[in-house]
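Q: Here's a chain of 276 amino acids. Please give me its 3D structure as tokens.
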Amino acid sequence: MFSTQKGSVAIISLIILLILALSVAGAGVMLFQKEKGLRAAAEEKLQDLEVKYRMAEDNLEKTRQQADDLRQQLGVAEEQMASIKQELDNELANRDRTMAEMEQIRQELESNRQLKDDLDRQLGEARSQIDGFTQQIKNLEDEKARLQEQVNQQQSVSGIELGKIVVASPTGEPQQQPPAEGEPAPAAGDNMPPSAGETGNSGKVLVVNREYNFVVIDLGVEDGIKAGEVLSLYRDNRLLGDIKIEKVHESMSAANMLSEGMKDRVKEGDTAVRKQ
């Protein structure tokens, strides 16, 4: 009986050991399967990581390439910016030169405008002077006609033809001229008229023309008067100045006044005396 009990115990122990072995084997299989699954998951993750790594490397390479491209573009952009800045500086310099030229042109236009105004003013003054000269010429022509009429009247009174008197208008105040060849020079300070016996003939001033600076006297060819001869004019034994014969007719002569300011002193009726 005791042996039977031992056999039962052994069988039970074997069964327990078998169960334990089976449990351990099952646990080992389970662990192996789990480890296999974990390894497969790890390998899959590793592969994913490798893919991602390669993709990251590709992205990094692309990023580096893009960075290089950006650097090149940045260099080109900097060069363009430098060129644009230079062009801008040139444009600013051109603008400054243009503004200076425009200011100079404006000043020239202003100067030309002022010059035009001055020229217009001078032109107006010149026109006024021309009108004045035209009026003076008209007045001189009227005076000439009046003098011609007086001469004609004197001619009709004397019965001798004098002809038309023409004397050029002087350009300035006449200067004292020397007497004709063969005539003596006047003595300085001689204010007294010579006697008739010393001079031969004396006459009277018929016409005084202050505009043309000449006189007409009643001495002519019949009195021995010659062109270029110099006579003196007196009033009340006071010397007024000298005259020079320019045109001689039978009984009358036209003469220019030689002394300065003489035209303001001579009057019709003054005495004309031949020099010695």
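Q: Can you summarize the key feature?
A: Confidence is low (pLDDT under 50) at residues 157-190, 195-199.
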